[in-house]
Specification:
This protein is α/β, with parallel strands linked by helices. It has 5 domains: about 80 residues, no CATH class; about 90 residues, Glutaredoxin (3-Layer(aba) Sandwich); about 220 residues, NADH-ubiquinone oxidoreductase 51kDa subunit (Rossmann fold); about 90 residues, Ubiquitin-like (UB roll) (Roll), CATH 3.10.20; about 80 residues, Up-down Bundle (de novo design (two linked rop proteins)). It is about 40% helix and about 10% strand. The protein is built from 25 helices and 15 strands. Strands 12-11-15-13-14 form a 5-stranded mixed beta sheet. Strands 2-1-3-4 form a 4-stranded mixed beta sheet, with helices on one face. A hairpin with a 5-residue loop joins strand 13 and strand 14. It starts with 11 loop residues before the first helix and ends in an 8-residue tail after the last helix.
């Protein structure tokens, strides 16, 4: 295809960054120096089909530019388009879609300071005001132009709020998180002070410190025990026994075990994992894919991060079993861009597994071949939606697709695909370890197994907890030490920003899928965020509305417009200046919510009203009594 490029050309370092992903250009058609190649270098091979196959490398190439230079220039974008055969308008659409990619000049060192829900409770607003006093408003160059800072949505460090995520561009790029943090620390790191000495030691699981706490662990039993960088340590603690068991059972028997265990998805949709795997396995089309959705971006959620950082081989093993059961020969792990440690540790785990014969061709001599490729996200909440994630991997804007067709028949690259989040996948190791019958005996008949819950906000011991499905919310809060300082509990946000608020009179709710559904709530991604009587719930609800406005991909009108109208109406109510009257404003909001729920393409627009609606109806927020 003809590419209409501008005259801007890449710098040598930009060429080098792109080549680190795509390799050196093979011909002048791909941007090679025409003066240094022979006639052979003017021949283009593969045509449109090869260009489509290589388009999947678009986001990795853009991330490489961001890492190396700190932003994506017009010349660099032209070069990527030449190399991949992607129209510039489409490439720019991808580059401008993600929050962690910059298409305007930006300093090499950037701090992304979380001002989302848990961090707000922990003083993030005061921290940001302090930073504004020290460094200027967000985006202002600091440290002689070499650094800057921005506000950020949730960084998945809610148990140690407030948090900051740093990016350092250059020949040896680096990214890291710091939590908890202070304005003084952020300003110091941006000025060039070493950051590693600032990170305090962390006990990853406060539940493990309680009497009998570690005995409750199933999915977390290796966290804090094994060396996450050692495959030998992993194997010494039961690692790869599940894969061996799967290879003994055979694909159909593995799926039967998963179905008999009645395990439901832990990402929010609660779809039966065994049904999904079986549907993919039955498809005659090849190739097939399995995908691990590790783009954990729901505010208040950090369970998948803990699993990836502390037990990465378990994720690799579980995805390998998924590939074996469904007949896939390739799997992808799409890791959230703000999780650099998880990405590095998973990368090492994949390399170690391949070196030891647990990945690659003829795994363990059983004739089964399987490979795993890691992909890094670039800051887009919407890419947690399964089809948006597929588009992101394929080198397109991370926008959801209409369904049907469903991923089990038309998923990644239009092929049958089984996609599960990290926690859901890791459950298969426990199923094969104890058997489907024993697994299903845990929890409730409709919600089997254990569940990981992310406790944050105003609790004494925030962190990740593993309990049997069906435990009462009150018991879970007690396990975390109750409300901090013994203060009165005002509300609990269950399921994250896309979840619902519960009042103090609802603490006896059993945390199972069926009980939550009956109560008009959702377990979502396992968020349990507590708010005491000192928290301004109006501010919390306004932040939720702002979050969905920012994170809407803009593809469909109900979500694109509805999230804006929701925020505007809430702002008017907060100021005491509704249109007409409070009752009329709420009626307008109800109309907006109805359209969003009924007509949005994906769950973002459909679920964006839930927390706001429950805060108004249950807690009296915005009625003069709610804050």
């Amino acid at each position: 295809m003809d590419l209409h490029l501008t005259d801007a050309r890449p710098t040598p370092e930009e060429r080098e960054a792109v080549a680190s992903v795509l390799g050196p250009p093979e011909s002048a058609w791909e941007g090679a120096d025409r003066s240094r190649i022979g006639l052979e270098g003017h021949v283009a091979r593969g045509g449109l089909r090869r260009a489509e196959e290589r388009r999947t490398l678009l986001l990795p190439a853009l991330l490489a530019l961001q890492d190396r230079v700190g932003w994506i220039s017009e010349g660099a974008l032209n070069h990527v388009c030449e190399r991949l055969g992607v129209p510039p308008a489409e490439a720019y659409g991808v580059a401008s879609f993600y929050a962690l990619l910059a298409t305007e000049p930006r300093p090499a060192r950037v701090a992304h300071v979380c001002d989302d829900l848990a961090c707000r409770v922990a003083g993030a607003e005061a921290l940001c005001r302090d930073l504004e006093g020290r460094l200027g408003p967000p985006g202002t160059p600091a440290a002689d132009g070499g650094a800057t800072w921005f506000r950020s949505p949730c960084l998945g460090r809610c148990d140690r709020a407030p948090a900051v995520f740093f990016q350092q561009a250059g020949p040896e790029p680096h990214a890291w998180s710091l939590a908890p943090t202070t304005a003084e620390q952020v300003a110091g790191v941006l000025a060039g002070e070493p950051w590693d000495r600032l990170a305090p030691p962390q006990a990853p699981l406060p539940q493990a410190e309680l009497p009998g706490g570690r005995e409750a662990f199933r999915l977390l039993r290796r966290v804090g025990v094994v060396d996450p960088g050692s495959i030998d340590d992993y194997r010494a603690h039961g690692g790869y026994e599940a894969l061996r068991a799967a290879l003994e059972l055979g694909p159909e028997a593995v799926i039967r075990e998963v179905k008999d265990a009645r395990v439901l998805g832990r990402g929010g949709a609660a779809f039966p994992m065994g049904v999904k795997w079986e549907a993919v396995a039955r498809q005659p089309v090849r190739p097939k894919y399995v995908v691990c959705n590790a783009d954990e971006s729901e505010p208040g959620t950090f369970k998948d991060r803990v699993l990836m950082e502390e037990d990465p081989f378990a994720v690799v093993e579980a995805l390998t079993i998924a590939g074996y059961a469904t007949g896939a020969e390739r799997g992808y792990v799409y890791v959230r861009g703000e999780y650099p440690l998880a990405f590095r540790r998973l990368g090492r785990a994949v390399q170690e597994a391949r070196a030891r014969g647990f990945l690659g061709r003829d795994i363990l001599g059983r004739g089964f071949s399987f490979e795993i490729e890691l992909r890094r996200g670039a800051g887009a909440y919407i890419c947690g939606e399964e089809t948006a994630l597929f588009n992101s991997i394929e080198g397109r804007r991370g926008e959801p697709r209409n369904k049907p067709p469903f991923p089990v028949t038309h998923g990644l690259f239009g092929r049958p695909t089984a996609i599960n989040n990290v926690e859901t996948l890791v459950n298969v190791l426990e199923i094969l370890r104890v058997g489907a019958e024993a697994y299903a005996a845990t929890g409730t008949p409709g919600s089997t197994g254990t569940r990981l819950f992310c406790l944050s906000g105003c609790v004494e011991r925030p962190g990740l907890y593993e309990v049997e499905m069906g435990v009462a919310l009150r018991e879970l809060l007690d396990l975390a030490g109750g409300v901090r300082g013994g203060r009165p509990l005002r509300a609990v946000l269950l399921g994250g920003a896309a979840g619902t608020f519960l009042g103090p009179d609802e603490l006896d709710l059993r945390l199972s899928f069926e009980d939550a559904r009956a109560a008009g709530a959702s377990l979502g991604s396992g968020v349990v965020m507590a708010f005491d009587d000192t928290v301004d719930l109006r501010d919390v609800v306004l932040r939720i509305a702002a979050f969905f406005r920012d994170e809407s991909c803009g593809q469909c009108v109900p979500c694109r417009v509805g999230t804006v109208r929701q925020e505007e109406a809430l702002a008017r109510l907060a100021r005491g200046r509704p249109i007409g009257s409070r009752e009329r404003e709420l009626a307008l909001l109800a109309d907006v919510w109805r359209v969003m729920k009924d007509a949005s393409i994906c769950g973002l627009g459909q679920l964006a009203p839930l927390a706001v609606e429950s805060a108004i109806s249950k807690l009296g927020v915005f009625d003069g009594e709610g804050a």
